[in-house]
Amino acid sequence: MAILGETKDGPLVLSPEQVEEIGRELDAIRARVVADLGQRDREYIYKIIKAQRGFEIAGRGLLYLGFLPPFWLAGVAALGVSKILDNMEIGHNVMHGQYDWMREPGLNSKVFEWDTVCPADQWKHSHNYMHHTYTNIHGMDRDIGYGILRIDEDQKWNPYYLGNPLYAFLLMVFFEWGVMLHDLEADNIVQGKRTWAEIKPLAKGQIRKASKQVLKDYVMFPLLTGPLFFHTLAANAAANLVRNLWTFSIIFCGHFPSGVQTFTEEETENETRGEWYVRQMLGSANITGGPLFHIMSGNLSHQIEHHLFPDLPANRYPEIAPEIEALCNKYGLPYNKGRFSKQIGSVWAKIFKLSLPDRLVGKSSQPRIIIMREPKPSEAGV
Question: What is the pTM of this model?
Answer without folding.
Answer: 0.92
